[in-house]
Amino acid sequence: MRVEITVAKTKPLPDGALDALSAELTRRITRDFPDDNHHVKVRYAGGNQLSVFGGCKESRDRITDILQETWESADDWFITD
User: Which of 1, 28, 63, 68 is the most exposed place for a label (fewest CB within 10 A)?
Assistant: First the structure.
């Protein structure tokens, strides 16, 4: 399954946030889908968007939930110095 997330470049995130988000999403997706080979890509673009390739509708719905949970818990896993 391939997951691509674009973040609106009009609201830049702190340094290292895209890589940290990608790593955290990969960890959480692997926990829910241990048998799949995942590729998660997070990048800036014109707007916010989630694309899931190679998964069924239920998988996409769960990925959407994981993304929301991850975003809402950023204070727990994204540490800035």
Answer: 68
- Read off the pTM: 0.84
Q: Which residue has the tokens 């929301």?
A: 68
Report whether 40 contacts 29 (CB < 8 A): yes
Q: Dig out the tokens for 1 from the structure.
A: 């399954």
CA 58, CA 56: separation in Å to the nearest integer? Answer: 5
Name the token pair of 79: 């540490």
Beta strands (DSSP E) in 1-81 are: 2-8, 39-45, 49-53
Overall fold of domain 2-77: Protein Binding, DinI Protein; Chain A (3.30.910)
Report the chain's mean pLDDT, rounded to a whole number.
Answer: 90
Question: Closest by alpha carbon to 77, among 23, 12, 9, 14?
Answer: 23
Q: Round to whole Å and give the CA distance between 25 and 80.
A: 18
